[in-house]
Recover the amino acids of this structure.
């Protein structure tokens, strides 16, 4: 009996310990949270009272909040101050109260780079090259562009008094400009050649889908039978607009994207629900490492449904969704609440610290042992037609084409400029302003020839930019492009300037070459696959 008692007593105690211990541990957990809260309050109070340097309690709480968010290790979760939220609204709506100018810092002064048409600045007569030296009686010397933006933007109808210095005018010019609502155009489109339309999309805002739809229709009226959608350097924006842009190309009922979360109301699948602009229009989507978020939603959906050939370099890899939660004082918490998945079920999210495709063995050419999958252990998925695509680490293009690199002589020119590089760009801009002002009849097709390049070199020497003439001459391709962009920017419009930026663009040229030959979207994939096979064969012979 003693043996039985010695057995059952510990067992009973064990049962009691398990049952009550769970309760005690649970209570201990709650108590631990309470204890940690008390410790936190005591730390804040003690630092505020006794730290060697005075620190305001409000600042300590700010530090604590920032530290808490930072410890999550999520670069996309952040606390938005009121000014941050205002900037976010600008990027997502494309509207703000302001003057309608693009500015930059040149030679220590805020300088007008471009005036937008039909805006207060345009109506007031501001010109590219004008230096803003005073705003509402305050000197703007050594202001950064961000500081200037905070002052120049404001409520519609509110005036701002400026003083400007204009090249060739001896005295500062006072001008009062009344702010108005400015709409930022994130879509630029034109005919790349007689058959191919080109649409550049820079940011997903509230009107992106309709602006792109209108652009495509206008291009088709001009004869476009194929399309290049350029999402390079597009950081994304509104998820809903990413869905809506995808909707322009996909058949009704096609899945666009799925969001998954531990929060039930964040789980949702989005489908295309409108008629596509043209279901038979061959499309190439251009992407690079700075294509993120909504750009990746579009590229992923069109790739999974075999609706577009994706060309360029692997994308950023932002496969998460953020939700805004209002806080006191006009602050907002931008919190990651879900991850999104392409129609094939892949997540393209790149975790913090995970190497990007370009740093992890992705080379130019095919999706094969020698191409984008080389050196990577990434899960394979399949498109509607059975083509292989990859999850994790961003969208891997169907055809990886690296961006242009400088010729040897051009790289030497850049090295020769060294710390003078910003001075060089300032000088080219000033020369462009003077050149355009002296030629009121200048046409958008102007040519940057040897005579102009010689004049520019003399200008550079006069302003103190030191570079040998033979090094300069050997970089005529690069300098011609730099000058062409600046003249187009100050004398014409965004379309003309964009055309000049694309003069040297290997990825765009490759897309156009494939589209000229393709008879259909399916044929476009075949041509790309043939190009991949040829490059694999060449790589194998090396």
């Amino acid at each position: 009996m003693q043996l039985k008692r010695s057995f059952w007593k510990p067992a009973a105690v064990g049962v009691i310990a398990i049952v009550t211990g769970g309760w005690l541990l649970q209570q201990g957990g709650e108590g631990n949270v309470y204890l940690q809260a008390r410790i936190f309050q005591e730390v804040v109070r003690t630092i505020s009272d006794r730290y060697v340097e005075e620190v305001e309690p409000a600042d300590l709480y700010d530090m604590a909040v920032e530290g808490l968010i930072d410890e999550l290790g999520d670069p996309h979760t952040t606390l938005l101050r009121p000014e941050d939220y205002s900037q976010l609204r600008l990027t997502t709506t494309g509207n703000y109260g302001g003057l309608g100018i693009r500015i930059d810092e040149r030679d220590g002064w805020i300088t007008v780079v471009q005036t937008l048409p039909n805006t207060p600045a345009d109506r007031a007569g501001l010109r590219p090259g004008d230096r803003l030296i005073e705003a509402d009686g305050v000197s703007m010397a050594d202001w950064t562009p961000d500081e200037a933006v905070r002052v120049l933007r404001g409520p519609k109808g509110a005036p701002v008094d400026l003083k400007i210095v204009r090249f060739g005018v001896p005295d500062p010019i006072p001008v009062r400009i009344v702010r108005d609502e400015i709409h930022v155009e994130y879509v630029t489109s034109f005919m790349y050649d007689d058959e191919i339309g080109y649409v550049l999309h820079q940011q997903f805002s509230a009107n992106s889908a309709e602006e792109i739809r209108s652009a495509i229709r206008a291009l088709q009226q001009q004869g476009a039978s194929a399309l290049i959608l350029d999402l390079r350097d597009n950081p994304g924006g509104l998820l809903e607009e990413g869905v809506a842009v995808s909707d322009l190309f996909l058949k009704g009922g096609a899945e666009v994207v799925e969001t998954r979360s531990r929060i039930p109301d964040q789980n949702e699948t989005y489908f295309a629900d409108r008629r596509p602009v043209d279901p038979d229009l061959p499309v190439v989507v251009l992407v690079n490492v700075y294509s993120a978020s909504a750009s990746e939603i579009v590229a992923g959906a069109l790739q999974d449904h075999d609706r577009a050939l994706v060309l360029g370099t692997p994308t950023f890899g932002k496969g998460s969704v953020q939700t805004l939660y209002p806080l006191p004082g006009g602050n907002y918490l931008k919190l990651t609440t879900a991850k999104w998945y392409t129609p094939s079920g892949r997540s393209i999210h790149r975790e913090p610290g995970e190497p990007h495709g370009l740093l992890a063995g992705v080379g130019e050419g095919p999706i094969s042992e020698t191409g984008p999958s080389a050196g990577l252990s990434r899960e394979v998925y399949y498109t509607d037609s059975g083509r292989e695509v990859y999850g994790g680490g961003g969208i891997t293009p169907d055809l990886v084409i690296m961006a242009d690199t400088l010729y040897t002589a051009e790289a030497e020119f850049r090295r020769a400029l060294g710390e003078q590089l910003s001075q060089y760009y300032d000088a080219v801009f000033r020369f462009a302003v003077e050149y355009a002002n002296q030629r009121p009849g200048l046409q958008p097709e102007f040519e940057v020839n040897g005579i102009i390049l010689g004049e520019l070199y003399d200008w550079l020497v006069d302003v103190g930019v030191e570079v040998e003439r033979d090094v300069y001459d050997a970089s005529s391709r690069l300098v011609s492009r730099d000058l062409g962009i600046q003249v187009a920017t100050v004398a014409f419009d965004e379309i003309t300037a964009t055309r000049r930026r694309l003069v040297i663009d290997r990825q765009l040229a490759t897309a156009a070459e494939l589209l000229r030959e393709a008879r259909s979207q399916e044929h476009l994939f075949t041509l790309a696959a043939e190009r991949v096979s040829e490059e694999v064969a060449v790589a194998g012979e090396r």
